[in-house]
Amino acid sequence: MNSTQLWLSLITLMVCFSCKNDSGKAVTPGGSFYTKTVLVDGISADNLTYKNVRTKPVISLSFSSPIKRESVTPSIQLIDQSTTKPISFTYSFSANDSTLTVVPNEPLLSLTTYKLTISSSLQSAQAMYLLASVSVGLTTTFDSTDKFSRISDSLLLDLVQKQTFRYFWDFGHPASGMARERNSSGDVVTSGGTGFGIMAILVAINRNFISRQDGLSRIAKITNFLSNQAQRYHGAFPHWLNGTTGATVPFSQKDDGADLVETSFLMQGLLTARQYFNSSTSADEIALRKAINVLWDGVEWSWFTKNGAESNLYWHWSPTYNWDMNLPIRGWNEALITHVLAASSNTSPISKAVYDNGWAQNGKMANGNSYYDTKLPLGPAYGGPLFFSHYSFLGINPHDLRDAYADYWQQNRAHSLINYNYCKANPKQYVGYSADCWGLTASDEQNGYSAHDPNNDNGTISPTAALAAMPYTPTESMQALRFFYYKLGDKLWKDYGFVDAFNLTNSWFADSFLAIDQGPIIIMIENQRSQLLWRLFMSCPEVKTGMKKLGFQSPALN
Fold first, then answer.
1. The sheet that has 248-249: what strands, in order across it?
2. What's the rounded Cα separation, in Å, for the pair 211 and 221?
3. Given 419, 481, 505, 524, which is the most exposed site by the fewest CB atoms within 10 A?
4. Rounded distance, CA 444 to CA 461, Å?
């Protein structure tokens, strides 16, 4: 007896002791009518859950007695689980009417979960009711045909940037203009995601998706809100705010005040915008630059060393809990930009010792091991989630950038290639992982949110991971983009670009969009295409001074 037969037998045995049909009538155990086997395309499966099913499956159910034919139609249903839409089908009988075979009338959708249910109202030819209803789960296989018409790679990049930009433009908060944290967050806006959104607006102006004046007006709206309504703590902003009132929305119980890392993402965007709107005659552009400078100079970066008591920057400060979060900002992770901006401050810069002793831990952030024949200079084993090589480098140009600890182009390219090659090797044998389908980073997953990487991998691919790696792995990232768009099609591609994540092993697709994931797609694709954001941010005179002070060398700093 195989596991499916055993499972069906156990259900039958349990129901025999206490069972009623749908009308509430008791079923007599003697001479009972029950399901013996369930086969999908001739195969049985544990718990009647079938994966990688053909889009036109043949489902056969055998019973202990011949079936009363006229009881079948009201007792059987095939449902698309994602839409609850009934699916039409044809059924037939065999083996002296003791086997029922069900076939959908039309091919099922790929990568979709269906449920075939046989209720206990099904009767045998002797008018006995089925002892227990049967539910068969069917998840269809991947369909490799193109879902959209092919266009040139250049037009595809335009399309991805333009549609993803809509998250920040059409869905920006109506009162503040800031980026909502996610598409279901209502009034909750994000400081770091807004920094990414500001940079996305600059791309949109440069690509003629919107006018320069419209982009300027939106960023001015954001800066006015940040200046006049948003809560600040020693000049730094909280992770989340209410987009109407500017009040802090706690990220967690004790994270109810300043978030220095999120503030640095916001300032990265604002400084980039200041460099873009460089007119000496436009009153609006002059006013925007002045407003940005006031916000920038208002951040008390050095105060986040516990007011000078330590050689570490600290991530959080709370007006209620003070330094209780006690999280030093140490590398290697996404917060290089925090130290660069802190060193670049006109008003409260940190010393090089904070960078060396705190961030770099005097070299302890080094890795130096090889993974998939690629040497990784910094960070955890296999590099960690890919956003480490994205968030700080939306503005910082890693080309030919070096300091005492690493060559940052080598670091980010190695990190991306290791992530790519891990997914290509697919050591855990997840469905879909390949040279075309890769990318592990922080994102939503089927039952929550997690920072995915080779050491924390559950089959969840995040489109932002491969797409925001475009400057480092242009060939591999373009392969992923084509796969996401053409092969996964409208499962993945929606009103605001690609959804946040998917898991082909579980045939799960997110219905969410996150500001911190949508922004890097637009920005890093643009950096690959034109280096626009890199050129703007690296043109900041304060950044040049600050990075040189920390020991960085790059042609962009000359």
1. 188-190, 240-242, 248-249
2. 16
3. 505
4. 10
- Give the pTM: 0.88
The helix or strand, by DSSP H or E, that contains position 93, with its residue range, turns out to be: strand 89-94
Q: How far apart are CA 537 and CA 267, in angstroms?
A: 10
Q: DSSP string spanning 504-538? A: TTTTEE----BHHHHHHHHHHHHHHHT-HHHHHHH
Judged by phi (left if over 0) then psi (alpha if -120 to 50, else beta), residue 478 lies in alpha
Per DSSP, what are the bridge partners of residue 128? none
Residue 270 has pLDDT above 90, yes or no: yes
Angle at 224 between CA 222 and CA 226, to 5 degrees: 70
pLDDT tens track for 222-235: 999 999 999 999 99
Are 283 and 329 in contact, with CB atoms under 8 Å apart? Answer: no
Q: Which residue has the tokens 């982009």?
A: 215
CA distance 159 to 222: 26
* Residues forming a β-bridge with 180: 189
**φ/ψ of residue 208, rounded to 5:** 65, 30
Q: Which domains does the chain have, with CATH numbers?
A: 3-140 (2.60.40.1220), 153-557 (1.50.10.140)
What pLDDT is recorded for position 82?
Answer: 84
Q: Helix, strand, or coil here: 121?
A: coil
Give the chain's mean pLDDT: 94
DSSP character at residue 20: B
The total of other beta-carbon atoms located within 10 Å of residue 148's CB is 13
Check pLDDT > 90 for residue 180: yes
CA 61, 64, 65, 71 torsion-angle sign: negative
How many other β-carbons are positioned within 10 Å of the β-carbon of residue 206?
A: 17
**Closest by Cα among 458, 274, 312, 469 to 388:** 469
DSSP 236-293: BPPSEEETTT--EE-SSSS--SEEHHHHHHHHHHHHHHHHH---SS-HHHHHHHHHHH
